[in-house]
Design a protein that fits this description.
This protein has helices spanning 15-27, 47-57, 72-106, 110-134, 137-157, and strands spanning 3-10, 34-37, 40-44, 61-68. By secondary structure, the protein is α+β, with helices and mostly antiparallel strands.
Amino acid sequence: VDNWILITYDLPVTKEGNEIRFKFLRMAPRLGAMMHTRSVYFMPQTPAAEQAAVELSKVGKVFVWTSEMKSEEQKKELTGLYDARVWVEVNRVEKRLEKIQQRILDGKKLGFASRMLDKTIRLFNDAFFAAGMRGSVEILGRLQELRKQIEQYQLELGG
C-alpha cells in the first residue's frame, strides 16, 4: 500500500460522543482499520477513511496523519506491520474455531458453541475486510480456508 492514514480521537462521554464512537467502531473494519491502541486506528488511505475522521471530528478532538511511502522499503515495512496486525485477528478466529470444534466433538454446550460461532463470524468478517482493503493474497487465502470451517460448523450447529 502506498498511502496510509492514522486516526486518533478523543470523544466526550456523552450521548452524542458515544453514538459517533459506536458508529465508527462498527464501520472501522469495513475501512480496513486495525486498532493500534485504544482510540488509534491505522488503515489504507481511502475517501471513506477520511470521511470517518471528519465524522468523528464533529463531536470530539481528532488528529489524522497521512503518509505517502516514497521507497519500496518503507512500503514493505509499513505493509508488514499492518499485515502482522491482521494476522493477529486471523489467529483469534482460528483459536475460536478450535474451541467451537471441541464443543461440537464433545456434544456439550452446543448453544454456547453456536453463540460463539456468531461472534467468530463477525471477527472473521472484520479480518476479511482488512485483508481485502490491503489486497493480501496470503491472508485472504487463509481466510478462505477458515470460511470452509465456518460453513461446516454452521451446518453442524443448524445456523
